[in-house]
Amino acid sequence: xxxxxxxxxxxxxxxxxxxxxxxxxxxxxxxxxxxxxxxxxxxxxxxxxxxxxxxxxxxxxxxxxxxxxxxxxxxxxxxxxxxxxxxxxxxxxxxxxxxxxxxxxxxxxxxxxxxxxxxxxxxxxxxxxxxxxxxxxxxxxxxxxxxxxxxxxxxxxxxxxxxxxxxxxxxxxxxxxxxxxxxxxxxxxxxxxxxxxxxxxxxxxxxxxxxxxxxxxxxxxxxxxxxxxxxxxxxxxxxxxxxxxxxxxxxxxxxxxxxxxxxxxxxxxxxxxxxxxxxxxxxxxxxxxxxxxxxxxxxxxxxxxxxxxxxxxxxxxxxxxxxxxxxxxxxxxxxxxxxxxxxxxxxxxxxxxxxxxxxxxxxxxxxxxxxxxxxxxxxxxxxxxxxxxxxxxxxxxxxxxxxxxxxxxxxxxxxxxxxxxxxxxxxxxxxxxxxxxxxxxxxxxxxxxxxxxxxxxxxxxxxxxxxxxxxxxxxxxxxxxxxxxxxxxxxxxxxxxxxxxxxxxxxxxx
Length: 510
Prior knowledge:
Layout: H1 2-11, H2 18-21, H3 28-41, H4 66-76, E1 97-99, E2 105-108, H5 111-114, H6 123-129, H7 132-139, H8 152-158, E3 170-174, H9 177-197, H10 206-212, E4 224-228, H11 237-242, H12 247-250, E5 260-261, H13 274-294, E6 299-304, H14 318-330, E7 334-338, E8 364-367, E9 374-378, H15 399-414, H16 417-438, E10 444-447, E11 456-458, H17 462-472, E12 474-475, E13 477-479, E14 483-485, H18 494-509
Parallel strand pairs: 2-12, 4-5, 4-6, 6-7, 7-8
Antiparallel strand pairs: 1-2, 3-9, 8-9, 10-11, 11-14, 13-14
Helix pairs in contact: 1-6, 6-15, 7-15, 8-15, 13-14, 16-18, 17-18
């Protein structure tokens, strides 16, 4: 830990935040004393990961305050601000706390829609970001398919692939979660047509080549990707055709004629309604199999989120996902697990599908968000197209983001953040369950037991709860029509959970 604190002290001068800068003025010994003092007053004997982060929220003005309002007004003249949540000062944000220009500092349990893994202005990431290796990657961004940098294999093997799900040892990198899913869909289609054509080495016919140029079969095959009701897989054209969460995501955008299977409408807690949920899950599996067999554009793959996030934080049991894996094997189609939001430790496992106990790994696992990079993992070499330039674009990912992912993974391992999230999640869930007993009209359908901090509940006044959260010092998010969802960072600890529970009770009393 002493080494870490010296590293943190060296890196702080890059920050302009009084919060983030506080340790930089101290000697390493003084920093260790500060750390010890902080640890001594932490709940449950915890040693804080960010010993000099705020001890609690600071609310000075309404949000947005006068400085934020002025900044929003200026921004709105050149950028669409209608979806704006709050104006943020990232140089003053630190650890689990997000700051605004008016001096408000909120405990952030939304974390840029589940995208910040190890805290704002994390010193270890700052060290990686200011390295010569990173500078070269930023200013010399390569067209990776044509001109990969000499150490690209090393960067992948020590970073992205070091975090690969069990059984998957290759990666195709992209830029966003939507992009990762679209790339996985393309791989699935090309794999399926290679099989139908007679094998990996069978070439295209002249008819296939010519028909592809007029968007007709067989060159543009009549295939599909099967997704689920309330699922969210992105906003690009292919990914949007598998997104089923909200109309606002899809209106006015042409879509492919692809099947939608029902996702189980389970009762919570899952274990208390095991029999009812098992029947509902079997109903959904039966309908999924019917669609696989009968849909007029046959599916090349099934794509599913371990926990449906944008669609309302919907959960199912491991049995449902094991059933999907068996269906895809039975009907010789691919199983794509979309871990864009659930991946990298948020559910108390590095990858959420590790909770399922699958008989064989998914064919592809897509990732983004907390990884700060994007792409899909796979193992079957036949998922590589039979010719170059088929799965290709100019950048094919970003070495700078891969370097950041490598630093994130090392930080996750060094601080045992997956284990921390599992333990903190159990603690937080128990606290929320106690609040639900006390305020049954405020917390309904509490879910996420045993899923780390991937916790949600339904609220009859959801939007009001989110708005009031800022007035008491917490930044919290929603999903679906009525769900309050928690998406804290991996460095969220039990003493942060106590603050969150205290602030939620203040909202419920109001």
